[in-house]
Structure formats: C-alpha cells, structure tokens
Amino acid sequence: YGFSYLQESNDGDDELGGRLQTVTCKGLWTKLDTSFKSGLVIGYVFSSVSIFTIFLSYCVPWASLNKRKRNKEMMKTPMMASLMERREKKRKVDSIQISTFQMSIPRVSFAELKKATNSFDRDKVIGVGKTGTVYKAAHPHLRFIAVKRLLLDFQHLEEQFLSELMILGKYRHKNIVPLLGFCLESRERLLVYQYMPNGNLHDWLHPVKGEPKILEWHLRVNIAVGIARGLEWLHSHNTLQLVHLNLSSSCILLDKHFEPKISNFGRAMHMITTSNAGIFMANSEMDGWDLIKKDVHQLGVLLLELITGEDPSNNSEFYQSLERKFVQNNCLSAVSAALYCAVDKSLLGQGFDREVLYFLKVACNCIQPLPNRRPTMVEVHKMLMAIHIPTFWAKTINEFGCSVNIHDYRITLKEI
Ligand SMILES: Nc1ncnc2c1ncn2[C@@H]1O[C@H](COP(=O)(O)OP(=O)(O)OP(=O)(O)O)[C@@H](O)[C@H]1O
C-alpha cells in the first residue's frame, strides 16, 4: 500500500512529490521497522522460551538419571559402602535413643558408671571377654551390678551392643540375665547387668588347680534344666521368637542359688513363623529350622561338658570324635554307651547312675549330625525334667534323713 501511494504521488509535482516521497517514505519505513522489530522480538522470545522448555523437559530427567546411576556406582566402592553402613548404624543408634523411652531399661550416665567402678579400676575386673571387660560395682539404687564396657575400636561391636540392648530390653525370664541399664555416650558403649555371685559355669566345670569348686549332680541337672527352659521360652515366644546361636558354658551365669542365666545375646537372631512358609530369620534368607537345631546342638555340647567335664574350647579332639562315633555306632544307645567311659567319675556311684546315663542320652540326641534328627527344645526340656524330678526328690529325701527308697519316687524315664 505504501509503495502504490508513493507511485501515485510521483505523477504530480515532481519536486514536491520528491520531498513528500522522502518524508512519507522515511515515516513509513520507521513504522514498518518498529512493527517488524517488535514482531521479530516477540517471535524470538517465544521461540527461545519454547526451545528452552523442550531442552529442559528432555535433558533434566536424563541428567538426574545419570546422577542416580553415578551415585549407584559410587555406592559400590568400598569407601562409600562403609560410609553408608556407618550412617545406617548411626540412624539405628539414634532410633534406639528414641525408643529407649519405650523400653524399661534406664539409661545410665558414663560419669555414674565411672564412679561406681572407681574409674574402671583393675581390681574390679570380674571377666574379660572377646568384646569387652566386665567390672563388678556397687550402685546406690541397683545394688551390685556387673558393668560391661565394650571395646571401643571394633565397629562390629556396635551391632552386638544394639542386639543385646534390644533383646534384653524386651525379654524377661528367670533363666535370662537381667539387663539393668545401658550407657551410650559419644564412643562409649556400656551394658549394666545384675551381678551374678557365682560367676560363669565354665569356671565351675574347669576350676583352676587348687580351687575348691565342685558342682554336685543335682546342681548340674538343675542348671541343664534351667538352660533348656530358657531356650525353650526363647524358641517358642508368642511374638518374638529368637535363636541364641552362641551358647557355651562361659555365657551361662549362675546366681547365688546356682540358677542359670543365659547371657551374651550379641549374635542372637529373631525368627518369623508363618503358617505356610515355615520359619525363617527376620534379617536373612536362612532357614529358621536349621538355626533352631544349631541351638539344640550347642546345648547338647554343653550337656556333654556338664557330664564329662571335657572343655570344648580346649579338647577339640574329644568333640571331633563324636561325629565318628555316630558313624561307627548305628543307634543312639550305642553312642551313649561308647561315651559312658568319658563321664566324670565323681558323678558315678552316688545312686544316680541311671539318671547319668539318661542325661548322656539326651546330650547325644542333641548332637546328632543330621539336624532334623535332633529333638526340639521343648522335647529336650521335657526329657531333662524327667531326670530332674527324681534327682530333686532324692536330694530332698536325703536332706530330711527319711528312710524312703528313692527308686519308688522315680518316674519311669521314657526310652529316648
Ligand atoms: N552379670 C554378671 N555377673 C557376674 N559375672 C559376669 C556377669 N557378666 C559377665 N560376667 C563375667 O565376665 C565374663 C566375661 O563376660 P562377657 O560376656 O564379656 O564374655 P564372654 O561370655 O566370654 O563372651 P564374649 O567373649 O563373646 O564377649 C563372664 O564369663 C563372667 O565370668
């Protein structure tokens, strides 16, 4: 339109037309230039925003995916894995701190325990384990206590500490050591137990030369029954079934009446029982039955130690030969008979030889090489009770000086 107008005006006065043409042309060009420019700017802005949006929508997810991939790769490096593990443990410890209020275990300050043990005085040491040192101490409210101070430099001890705390914080039983308190301050980890005046079973079965420590038959049977009762309770607890997995005579503590208390739950594991899938472990794929039978085997070794006095930590030859005995002798009675000569001689000829033999049979039953042949803890407890009752009667009758034949009181022990 502008050009045709200019053409028309050119036909008139040339000079005027020429001037007019120049002025009008300038204005029109300016007009045209501005609208073109603004159009160009709008178009430019619009297209750049669209390109930028498209770029973002495509590239950002890829970038975050790559970042996640990179993180995953980094997690595979040992350093990162251990860092994450530590972070996870710290989270666990923190959550323990919170859940402490839900447990009945009181938290004790490090200063309090330091004072009670006289700054962890060497004279107060009552035991040294693989995981720490145990001190005897007097506490104003808790009377005599045993304070276990875990070694500081072992990372895996953190897990053991948590395990003991979580298990003993929940479980209360006549045959499980009572946990009275705990301390968790910076790098210090301490556990406070009720003090057991008769120490551990291992020291009673293997006294140092010259020490007058003798465990009578009725006490041994009572100890065996108590351990089996505690384990049976753990294995068949209503809601929180548990396997111990670290049984030995040194983790059986004895109170002033020689009642056994199972301790050392650092390796214990929770079990989950389902109606269709059987029993499995809460934190792993392991078969629960195998581990239950592992506890039964460890109890069997402990029963053998109780009756023969052979120390499994020193006399591995005796315990290694057991499996051979099962291969050579095809039935349980034959194995028991083969082991009879190893029975502690001080236990024989006291009027309980029949019970001693049954006890030996129960032990052999528990250590059978095939786990599915071993009895359950409920059965072991029942069998030991069948030995305990006549022993108890015999002791009571002897104490009261009655002239009753104890054999009348013996219940018929089932053939095992
Ligand atoms: N509550 C307690 N009362 C009396 N003595 C205890 C008590 N707790 C532990 N002891 C003594 O301290 C010893 C060491 O105990 P601790 O539990 O540290 O070691 P452990 O049973 O050898 O196991 P580990 O070596 O795996 O730590 C025990 O064998 C026992 O003699």
UniProtKB/TrEMBL annotation:
Cellular compartment(s): Membrane
Residue intervals passing through the bilayer: 41-65
Binding-site positions, ATP: 148
PROSITE patterns assigned to the protein according to its UniProt record, in alphabetical order: PROTEIN_KINASE_ATP, PROTEIN_KINASE_DOM
GO CC terms of this entry: membrane
Domain Protein kinase positions: 120-384
Membrane recorded as keyword: yes
Principal place of residence: membrane
GO molecular function ontology, one term from the record: ATP binding
Protein name, UniProt field: Protein kinase domain-containing protein
Species lineage: Eukaryota, Viridiplantae, Streptophyta, Embryophyta, Tracheophyta
